[in-house]
# Entry
Amino acid sequence: MAFEITGKVIDIAPVNQVSDKFKKREFVIEKKETGGAAVFIDYIKFQLVQDKCDLINESYLNEEIKIWFNLKGNKWERDGKINYFTNLDAWKIEKVSAQGKDQSPQSRPAMDDIPPENDELSDLPF
# Structure
């Protein structure tokens, strides 16, 4: 399932070459919500993997962007200890223009834009 969110980019990490076959890049957005007189700020970290690492660069810093992403959860076990990880895998990013904020929302991504889910069940015949 694909999700989307809008926020201001506050940090962009360099590309991290984890292994010869895997690279990732992390970035953080600031998401502000108002509730009455209060303002709530969340800092949300996303990751880009493989060929998606080039979707963002330093020119996006302090810019308002719209992100389409998948929510991923993984289990990792070592020496009898189990750890769980949750990742927000971004797969599409667009800068939000000041003019675009006042206009109607852009069209939702087409099904062809959404990357397939990678899990051990994806090769089942049903």
Summary: The CA atoms of residues 116 and 122 lie 9 Å apart.
